[in-house]
Every structure is written in structure tokens, then in C-alpha cells.
Design a protein that fits this description.
T-fold; 7 helices; 11 strands; disordered N terminus
């Protein structure tokens, strides 16, 4: 995904109303079905995200390793952690990375599920990581830095496959850390934090020497992962329950 986030413009939908919410590093673009939009919705979501961020910050203040480790996190008393931290730890441990690899995904999902208490359709994007529940087929564009495939393909998402997390990791786009060489790793899962963590994990594996198909097969063995896409330069590989189509503006 791109750092200036022009892709938010192409996600607009005539059935939905969009707005943004920013709480510290959490920068959400949100669309809800017009029937359930209200002027105070932005404020309500902001308060909800603030509460969840405060829960997470308490964990980090008590245990700084939670934020810094790039390895699976083993809590002494995991049952004492707030739910947001538990979900991040589970996702990171499944993906063999640290819990903060799931942070963008978890906040996208928290905002989305909060809105779905009243709304019927929701799309939440947080730094290129997406949670969505839709009632009609939609397309999500894939942006992959300087790859010639960037902006050329899109994911076609069927409503029966939502709610769904769609998360992206890149070594060439955006501020998130990746030790690999992928222009884009896109992961689909019903769990946005898990998709986020696995995207990071897979992205770290990509270099010029490894077979993309083998990496995909390994990642698909993680319970809860439904589909993956890797773009590296002129190469593209995809496996699982994922449908690729030509981007509308390509």
C-alpha cells in the first residue's frame, strides 16, 4: 500500500459514507453504510480507540518487551492481559513474530466490530490493513511500490466471505519494518490481527533466493489463513481462497 494513501479515494462507494479517525499513530479511514451514518460516529469511534490504546499502553509500560520483541511473546500470566493484548500475542505467536506485528490489524478490527454493533456494512483501513463487512462484491486494489504490477491487480471480495481481514506488508512501501524484499505480501483471514502478523512474517521470508510458492504453502498451513498474494518485482504468486482481477484503472 502507499504512504500517501491515495488508494482511500478508490475505495469510496455510493452506498457508504466515509470519515477518518486519528488517535496517535492509529490513522483510520472508515466507511459505513449510509443508513447507519451519523455526525457523532467519528467521535464515538475515537473514544473507543482511545480506550483500547490506553489498555495497550498500560501493557507496554509494564512490560516494554511487548513492544520491542520481534519474536513470539511468552507472558508470565497471559490471563491477566487485556483482550487486545491477548489477541495480539496469539496472532504474533501463530506467525512466529512479536505481538506488535498485529497492531494495525487489531485496531482496524476493533473499530470495525464496534461499528457493526449497529451498521450493516463497514470498511476500516489502518495503514494499509483492512477489516471489512460488505453486502455486495467489492474490489480492493493492490499497490506494490515500484513493481510493474503495482496498481494492476485487485482482490475481488465476495460478501459471503466477510467479515474479513486483508493485511499488507511491504519492504518498499510505507513505514512498517520488514527484513525481506517483497513489494507486497497480502494476507486474507477472518482475523485482521492474524492477517497482519502473518503478512509481516511472510514478508520477512522473501528474498531473491527463496521460492515464492513454497513460502505460500508454508503460510497457508497456519490455522485461520485463507489466502495469500506475494508480489516481488515482476513476480507474482497467489494461493488459497483469493480471487485476483484486473484493477479497474489499469
Amino acid at each position: 500500500m502507499t504512504s500517501h494513501r491515495f488508494y482511500r479515494q478508490v475505495m469510496e462507494n455510493e452506498r457508504m459514507v466515509s470519515f477518518t479517525v486519528k488517535v496517535k499513530e492509529t490513522d483510520l479511514w472508515i466507511a459505513v453504510d449510509a443508513l447507519h451514518f451519523s455526525e457523532n460516529l467519528s467521535s464515538l469511534v475515537e473514544k473507543h480507540i482511545w480506550r483500547k490504546r490506553q489498555e495497550l499502553e498500560k501493557v507496554i509500560n509494564y512490560c516494554p518487551e511487548f513492544q520491542t520483541t520481534m519474536e513470539p511473546f511468552l507472558a508470565e500470566n497471559p490471563h491477566e492481559l487485556p483482550d487486545i493484548a491477548i489477541q495480539m500475542v496469539r496472532a504474533g505467536n501463530k506467525a512466529n513474530v512479536g505481538p506488535m506485528a498485529a497492531v494495525a490489524g487489531i485496531f482496524a478490527e476493533l473499530a470495525g466490530k464496534y461499528l457493526l454493533e449497529d451498521a450493516r456494512e463497514v470498511i476500516v483501513e489502518n495503514g494499509g490493513d483492512i477489516f471489512l463487512q460488505v453486502e455486495n462484491t467489492c474490489r480492493v486494489g493492490v499497490y506494490a511500490g515500484n513493481s510493474p504490477l503495482s496498481g494492476k491487480v485487485a482482490l475481488e471480495i465476495m460478501p459471503e466471505n466477510t467479515p474479513l481481514g486483508i493485511c499488507t506488508s511491504s519492504a518498499t512501501v510505507g513505514p512498517s519494518y520488514s527484513s525481506g524484499e517483497a513489494d507486497a505480501v497480502v494476507v486474507l483471514s477472518p482475523s485482521s490481527p492474524l492477517a497482519d502478523a502473518v503478512a509481516t512474517s511472510v514478508g520477512n521470508m522473501i528474498d531473491g533466493q527463496k521460492n515464492l510458492e513454497e513460502i505460500l504453502q508454508t503460510a497457508l498451513q497456519i490455522e485461520g489463513i485463507e489466502g495469500l498474494l506475494i508480489i516481488q518485482g515482476e513476480k507474482m504468486a497467489a494461493q488459497g481462497n483469493i480471487k485476483l482481477v484486473r484493477a479497474e484503472n489499469s
